[in-house]
Amino acid sequence: MQRLLILLASLIVVHSSFSAQPNVVIIFADDLGYGDLSCYGSPTIHTPNLDRMADEGLRFTDFYSAAEVCTPSRAALLTGRYPIRSGMCGSRRVLFPNSEGGLPKDEVTIADALKGKGYATMQIGKWHLGIHDGSRPLDQGFEHQYGLPYSNDMDARPGLPKGSTGSPTPPEDGWNVALSRDGEVIEKPTVQTTLTKRYTEEAVKFITEKKDKPFFLYFAHTFPHVPLFASPAFKGKSRGGIFGDSVEELDWSVGQVMNALKKNGIAENTLVFFTSDNGPWLIMGNQGGSAGLLKDGKGSTWEGGMRVPGIAWMPGRIKPGVAHELANAMDLFATSLALGGAKSPDVPVDGVDLSPLLFESKPLPQRPFFYYRGDQLFACRIGEWKAHFRTQTGYGQPKADSHVPPLLFHLGLDPSEKRDVAKDHPDVIAQIEEAVKAHQSNLVPGNPQLQ
Ligand code: MG
After folding, report:
1. How much is the pTM?
2. Which domains occur in the chain, in start order?
3. Fewer CB near the terminus (10 Å): N or C of the chain?
4. Rounded distance, CA 87 to CA 375, Å?
């Protein structure tokens, strides 16, 4: 009898998960490390809203950004594809204000796919996927946009004092980066102090206005990427200095989004996913965040460069808990399309639909995860095992070290990648090499966009 009741209850849960087109909200922090939230072990940064999201949702211990730096990571999140496929990676690492490339128009983004299924779509915050015709938010499936075209440290004004980027009190007018709405510049230079607050107001407004139709909100915060700013309500409040202040304001913002969904009665029909575009920017010192027990940070294919916080929230639909499953940002593409009932594009897609894990607590299929630095494959993980073919610190090491045989780490026993056990496990290395060969054998690199 009890087993029958459990079976019936699970059928009801499965059925209700797919009863309508749920809304999708992706909240993307910039350069937030694995160790920068209370619920991921930060002793100095207080993040009660994200902690609540984790308590009520599914917190991933092994969630990855799809690249080690900003532009490729964002391209992969929105297209579900390793950035090598779209050409959104290379030796220049990210797009700069003088770059001529951008996300190719023919790439299908989450916004393109969900707009095609009747979703309202909006991008708030940092874009960094191109400023030219074809690559901008409104060209890539977003009906509305509010935010910055690239990083807040780009387009520095002439004569800016050296070291301003990593200063705890950067000049307000130091960077000429423009704030735009629906593609039209509305403020230049952008007043960065109130940026998180204003992004949040836009997000709450969009949610409230669109509550009666399905919507997709891609909310990509500017912070905690340096230069760091926080509004007066948060400045000077955190034990973690200005970095902590900016993360705590971001945490407040997440709380506002969750409250808006609850107030409008749509929290149970909205998947909210919080993550970061890459690890902490360690060369910024006290302004650079923390990867916790993981090695290195932004720019590197050591764990600290790409393993990031990942929290899924959908009250009543996602069973609260902690997931040790290997998942990554490209999965949000496949998951969003599945929720919206959109067909996957007719191109190779690297993400998988996380719905079985999120809504039915089913394990995901085992698959390899590839760590790229620019357009070079540096490492691969299968299960608990990670092999490094090449290694290089995120910044400051001019040339990569090559490893034959590759370095091998067991991430369950050794998450900090301290003990190379390659010589004891040639069979594991052979399996990983086989997976890399299979991946590379049918890979068609896209036209390089970052030159
Ligand atoms: Mg970044």
Report:
1. 0.95
2. 20-360 (3.40.720.10), 369-441 (3.30.1120.10)
3. N
4. 8
